[in-house]
Amino acid sequence: MNLIDLKIFACVARQPSLGAAALELHLTPSAISKALRRLEGDLDTVLFDRSAKQLSLNASGQRMLDFARNMLSMADQARADVRGDDASISCRVAGPAILLWRHAEQLAQAMAAYPVADMHLLSMYEEDALAALARGRLATPWSPAKSCMAALPTGRQTGPVFLWVR
């Protein structure tokens, strides 16, 4: 089992098709398919239910996805620590555009407080944001926790602003 195969596996699990994963990773679909087969061989188990045009995670694949996300996050953290990189935060704030606009000042303050932070604002309906979180498009947890959600402490919120820390 290697980190490249785990990265490919996590991407395929997140994308709607093998072709979409290939585009994201700048690989050919056959290279992705080989990596998945290699990982399944290493684990001696099938991770996806395969149909003519689609892959879907089975129960074993879902369990492995949690481990893969944690191992990839730990590898990134180890790489940064060994290099002596400054602690940094990469996050995506997702929510309805009106809420992002309404909390722009607090988001700017957060960016000023953490100059090495990398923040992406994503405008989407709450249901879409939660679905993207469930599919792993918004976050890779650093811990075994399923997700990390927090709201900005404004004291006057009218709705949730979700902050997913990657």
The succession of helices and strands, N to C, reads HHHEEHEHHEHE
Beta-strand residue percentage: 5-15%
Order of strands in the sheet with most strands: 4-3-5
* Number of helical elements: 7
CA distance, first residue to last residue: 23 Å
Mean pLDDT: 77
- Going by helix content, strand content and strand pairing, the class is alpha+beta
| Name of the CATH superfamily of the largest domain | Winged helix-like DNA-binding domain superfamily/Winged helix DNA-binding domain
Can you tell me the CATH topology of the largest domain? Arc Repressor Mutant, subunit A
Largest sheet: 3 strands, mixed
Low-confidence stretches: 140-158, 160-166
DSSP E strands, number: 5
Please explain how this structure is put together.
This protein is of the alpha+beta class. It folds into 2 domains: 3-83, Winged helix-like DNA-binding domain superfamily/Winged helix DNA-binding domain (Arc Repressor Mutant, subunit A, Orthogonal Bundle), CATH 1.10.10; 90-165, no CATH class. Helices cover 51% and strands 13% of the residues. A 3-stranded mixed β-sheet has the order 4-3-5. It has a two-stranded antiparallel sheet with strand order 1-2. Strand 1 and strand 2 (55-57) form a beta hairpin. It starts with a helix and ends with a strand.
Write a concise synopsis of the structure shown.
This protein has 166 residues and is α+β, with helices and mostly antiparallel strands. It contains seven helices and five strands; from the N terminus they run αααββαβααβαβ.
Task: Give the topology.
Blueprint (H helix, E strand, L loop, with lengths): L2 H12 L3 H8 L3 H15 L4 E3 L4 E3 L1 H25 L6 E6 L1 H6 L1 H10 L4 E6 L2 H9 L27 E4 L1
Parallel strand pairs: 3-4
Antiparallel strand pairs: 1-2, 3-5
